[in-house]
Amino acid sequence: MRLRLAQRSRLSETSEWVSVGDASIECRGDAASDQAIVYCVGGGFFLGPTDMHRQLVDELCAATNSRGLIIHHRLAPENPFPIPVEDTIACLRHINDVFSIRKYAMIADSSGAAVGLSAVVKFGELGGRLPSGLVLLSPYTDLANTGRSYVSNAQCDPNFGPQALIHKAWYYLQGHNPTDPLASPFWGDLSGLPPSIIFVGSKEVMHEDAVRLSEKLNLCGSPTALNTYDHAPHVWPLNARLPEATEARAEMVTYLEKAFE
């Protein structure tokens, strides 16, 4: 299944690739721009970027005159935690050390928020330059699945039940403690992070993840806006055909323009 999805999503004529160890960075948008949108995609820890991710990156890059940098880390279950986080840290280091970037913002969706946010926190601890903004789409950042919405929204989320997320987390963690902050950034120290904006649907099983994450970020001193869309499906901004996606993308552009000032 992973191979079929990858084959359907090829847009090689509009992407350039940079290898970073066993990971890679897919470069799109304006290569001459000194600001970048770095994307850490979801996919349950075992799927990589698709055309939907590329289309969103292309649109946001065009609207903000930025270059797009999509991180391709190694995938579970063959490459479990912490390999994806380590790959992402290596890519962030390469972006900051090699690319001529004045500012960058990170977008992460679903399980990509667990990997991306953990990598950003660790990268900052290692002395790396943090992004100027974070955009989190339906973030999955508590792999212990302790939020109430895993129960209250179990029957109304059209994409996931709690059991599906338990399986995805297991393939990624393979017995590791799900409350390790490097695996579940919700359980870590989030102080010092840049302003953030979070998008989540009201009926997602991950809804409580987003609510609690926004509360914690604000308490840690990172101004965070939580945008809850009524009945919107998981990571709906990726689906350009939805009117809710058009609205969310406009909000993302406004946020990114401010982050790049």
UniProtKB/TrEMBL annotation:
Origin superkingdom: Eukaryota
Keyword Nucleus in annotation: no
Keywords per UniProt: Hydrolase
Keyword Hydrolase: yes
GO molecular-function terms, A-Z: triacylglycerol lipase activity
Alpha/beta hydrolase fold-3 domain boundaries: 37-236
SUPFAM superfamilies: alpha/beta-Hydrolases (SSF53474)
Protein's UniProt name: Alpha/beta hydrolase fold-3 domain-containing protein
InterPro entries documented for this protein: AB_hydrolase_3, AB_hydrolase_fold, GDXG_lipolytic_enzyme
Entry-linked PANTHER family: AB HYDROLASE SUPERFAMILY PROTEIN C4A8.06C, ACETYL-HYDROLASE LIPR-RELATED
Organism encoding this protein: Cymbomonas tetramitiformis
